[in-house]
Give the backbone structure.
Amino acid sequence: MAAIIDRIDPQAQLYDDLVISDPMTARSQTKPQPKTDRGERTRQKILAAAGREIGKRGFSVTSISDITAAAGVGQGTFYIYFQSKEDVLRELVLQMGRELRQHLSDATTGAKTRLDAEREGLLAFIEFVRANPGLYRIVEESQFVDEAVYRRYYMDFAATYRAALQAAEARGEISRGSAEVRAWALMGMAVFLGQRYGLWDVATPLEDVVGPAVDLIGRGMQP
Amino acid sequence: MAAIIDRIDPQAQLYDDLVISDPMTARSQTKPQPKTDRGERTRQKILAAAGREIGKRGFSVTSISDITAAAGVGQGTFYIYFQSKEDVLRELVLQMGRELRQHLSDATTGAKTRLDAEREGLLAFIEFVRANPGLYRIVEESQFVDEAVYRRYYMDFAATYRAALQAAEARGEISRGSAEVRAWALMGMAVFLGQRYGLWDVATPLEDVVGPAVDLIGRGMQP
DNA sequence: CCTGAACGTGACGATCAATTCATGTTTGAC
DNA sequence: GTCAAACATGAATTGATCGTCACGTTCAGG
């Protein structure tokens, strides 16, 4: 039964849930795209400033005027390009997802085995966190602003992860086991290690973290 | 070097960080304890209502008047017992930590081996999440309200976890490896699986989750 | 039953941040 | 060079919540 779900689409019912329970947040908030070059540049200035400010101090304490001041534009300019503060956060989350996905993809394409990919991926992830400490503030706080975009963020990562694990399993490279459960377990590991060693402690050498972690999932705790 | 830190107190510098960077939030906000029985009951009514409301809708969107209305008391009554909304959240986080710790401790005391304890603990954790879905809203949002209490929450769990792993390692029950890294990796696993299968999907039987997860950390992914 | 300390109240003033909008400026197609 | 559309502005409006306070109520000890 669980195996059947796993084969079809283990996340289908999660997406359903979202749409059913949260119709508001699912509606895409659209402002017409900038028509000119100047407009596009201004929009990007605001988005970048929002990323910096929210990443530094958090979404709820950052005001629109903080963002526009940091961007060097007037208050009203914000509303030419975004519906609301929530709107800009949504976009930041999607952007962070794209950037991180790219970074991880770059880091793992050279990997010979699945376990190598895990090692390189985890290392690249914590490095990314150290380089972009705003990631957590943006993504984690989005949960309380627009749950749909938060879920989608992680479900997209989970889908990619699951596919990679299933491919490795098909090649006989790793043991059999629910790819969905493994994907979430491994994401959780990465997120917590990223918080602990990427945000809170940036002194510990990452080999001392990645080694034991990959060992844990590679060989287990059996003595 | 990492091994030395591990042996002394791997979290020491994290606590330091907190105190240095966040002196405000570390200051304990004290309101005199209720002097009478009636006072204590009212305080508890407010705390319980706050837990319900914040757990259901989130901290930032819940107003003091939401809380007092749910508690069935006047607005001003809130300020007899709490300094602010932040104050009540701090207390809720600590309380959640105590309850969860108790629940996990009850669930794992019968375990014969460390891996059994992992299995029972993970099962109990996700069951706790299903029974107390407000846990995540309260604990995770506390990160954006009072980072000190959030860190302490997880660092306390990490300390307990680390001790258990070190004891098991000393007994030769599990392989050698950084207890600190393992503790954070395992917490992350639990939190993410709790979110995926405790909050977002309450239909999947927990054996289908706990089995594969414990297998992953017990035997690893080696084919 | 008296009395003061503890508790309870909800209307209200102060504050603060999100949007709006009337007005001014820039751009680029023709 | 003209002109209409796009863009930019920040003061003013709006709306919401926090936290206070002056005034009642309850209760336990004397």
